[in-house]
């Protein structure tokens, strides 16, 4: 039988358009070691690890007449140099120039005639640094058979690239006739598939999402029925094709101090800092903010079933991600009360029979947050954008340094994709004593994303200085 895309994976392809490319990104910054770290070394490292990621050498093949969902086939013309690209900033390149490059790269849809991932080796950064910018389509990373590339190429100690012989031999793709025969065979067994496949091509985004939400156990469908539309605001607008990107660097120790003073979890404090920043951002734009005003965040969280104790490092086999809706109290002027409100709202999720899997995630090899942010984006993609204002993903990372080859990673920022009517997405990752925020915004609706990033730092400082 053909390796057919799941209904969820196919939906990400159906819903994608030029303004809303559905890939998840990451920006990793590395110190260049004395012995150097160049494009050829990265190329060798990626090529060496691709044997563990068969999906990264496969492309999507559509079925004639859309009689069935597309299938995965080996890319007989696979070209590693096409997917791992070399780029450079005018030396000495600043961080701001890097973020401008990231925004432009993330705005570009990927070629569906090739495997759906790209990596950019960015040279020219000041202070002898290089960056790796990755893009992976949401249809690719499922956390079971395929993890994110950033997880696979990072190691807990410096590694020399080992010589390897690529023995991969692509399988010939099925003919158009075979694709049709396979589709007919499946249709005979499941007649409703033909109608659903046709509907997916002509339906609007909400109808298509309705069809595929059962991939998450019906949670999104139930919430859409019970939850009112998100509060109106500047973040829910039809997005353009342009993007802006900004980052926030903070110290993990500050979150621990705030937790000791005011309670809650590190994730609660992250949400409280973002809430405070959103409040100031709205006020700076002259938007009226009442005492009861809220903004609704979709917060995907990794969970474990009650009988599961930890992830399997070989592909996060038992992993699940559930998306929760959290009303952020942007109308509350007191930072401590904002944190208390959020802690109370989040406790209902963390106290449930399914535990949040943060500690288990830290035991997974490589940089698990890269995969977890991809899974979080998949979970968010199963919801209608009408019921939330923004997406916030947070995934804890290891507190020891990681390396690509012999280059030590110093910073890591997630880049979460935008939906059609959602102008801001924030990814957060902790790593080696720091907490890193990546803010991906629509260039028209959130052109001042840099100001919002600075306000996150201000909101965290406000919490640090607050007393009971």
UniProtKB/TrEMBL annotation:
Alphabetically ordered keywords of this record: Acyltransferase, Glycerol metabolism, Lipid biosynthesis, Lipid metabolism, Transferase
The family annotation for this protein states: Belongs to the long-chain O-acyltransferase family.
Domain (O-acyltransferase WSD1 C-terminal): give its ranges: 319-464
Q: Which InterPro entries match?
A: Acyl_transf_WS/DGAT, O-acyltransferase_WSD1-like, O-acyltransferase_WSD1_C, O-acyltransferase_WSD1_N
A Pfam family matched in the record? WS_DGAT_C
Q: What class of enzyme is it?
A: transferase
What is the native source organism of this protein? Amycolatopsis acididurans
Q: EC number(s) in its UniProt entry? A: 2.3.1.20
Q: Describe the location of the O-acyltransferase WSD1-like N-terminal domain by residue ranges.
A: 5-270
* Protein name stated in the entry: Diacylglycerol O-acyltransferase
Q: What SUPFAM superfamilies does this protein map onto? A: CoA-dependent acyltransferases
Q: Reaction catalysed by this chain?
A: an acyl-CoA + a 1,2-diacyl-sn-glycerol = a triacyl-sn-glycerol + CoA
What pathway annotation does it carry?
Glycerolipid metabolism; triacylglycerol biosynthesis; Lipid metabolism
Positions of transmembrane segments: none
